[in-house]
Amino acid sequence: MKFVEEIVVEEFLPTVRSMLAADLRERDFTQREVADALGISQSAVSKYAHGEVATSDAISEDDRVQALVERIGDGLATGDMSRVQALIEIEVLIRQLEDGDLLAERHRELMPELREYDASFDVHDPESGARTTEQVRSSVRRGLRILRNTSGFADLVPNVGSNLVECLPDATDVEDVAGIPGRIFDVRGTATVPSDPEFGVSAHVASVLLSARAAGVPVRGAVNVRYDPALVDGLRDAGYPTVEFDVDRDAEGHDATRPTIVDAVRDADPDPPFVLYQTGGFGIEAITYVLGSDASTVARIVRDLVG
After folding, report:
1. What integer is the mean pLDDT of 77-83?
2. At a CB cut-off of 8 Å and minimum separation 6, what does 69 contact?
3. For labelling alongside 300, which of 2, 15, 85, 148 has CA 20 to 30 A away?
């Protein structure tokens, strides 16, 4: 009797770990860094490097496996992908390959009795909440890298700080929105990001994003920068719809949408990506918001504007 899980442990995981170890070494990771990234020992990394671990050609030559290894290697190298997301992505592919695919076929080879059954094994949901959550965090990390590498972004950070956010597909409150704890601040001309993205930490920009969504615009990413008429004109000239809204002094709370934003966006009915702005008031700083399909998209818009 042979379980498909045994094939995963004995064939799939050694092959993928070997491929990932080789990929990361090609990206100039040290043996220690590879071990830390993969959660294995240095001696295991050494064995993979010297071909002392049996691997499967059928698995290593599969296009989907190769694409996943490259994507995870790039994500781990840039910091865009956490180890949790890497684990989830591998698990998702495993379940796909178990479901009437490569691993299922290997299972039938080892258990020929299974060939008389036309059955598949759907034991994992590829659209799981955990996977979606990690994908959102990854997108915010990519957007942050774009902003940090953008010369001049620090000059766009308002006095209250900037935040880059992205929400889950069915977001209803700020707990469904990932952002930067403590916001992004200009520290001596450098945009400083204090921590890794978390959910529920940006009541301000998150509420603006949720308000735009409440108005019917399918956006999931937003970033705020300082207000300047020339800045808004530049975004408008670049082809992005611009929408002005009035300051809402009563908009508070962790799950609040802002009626003045909802009304302004609903009246304008802009196609995303688009720009929201308010020109301030007594004790309230004027701010510009760029909203789009995800965090990376709005970060690129800011980068292109500065450039």
Report:
1. 92
2. 16, 19, 20, 23
3. 85
Number of domains in the chain: 2
Q: Are residues 103 and 168 in the same domain?
A: no
State the Rg of the chain over Cα.
24
Q: How many CB atoms lie within 10 A of CB 139?
A: 23
Q: Quickly list H helices, the chain.
A: 4-7, 13-26, 31-38, 42-49, 57-60, 63-78, 83-98, 102-110, 129-148, 203-214, 229-237, 259-268, 295-306
Largest CA distance in the chain: 78
Phi and psi (nearest 5°) for 267?
-70, -40
Last residue of a domain, one of 126, 144, 179: 126
Side chain identity at 76, as an amino acid letter?
Answer: L
180 and 301 share a domain? yes
Q: Which of 18-27, 80-89, 184-193, 199-208 has the lowest mean pLDDT?
A: 184-193
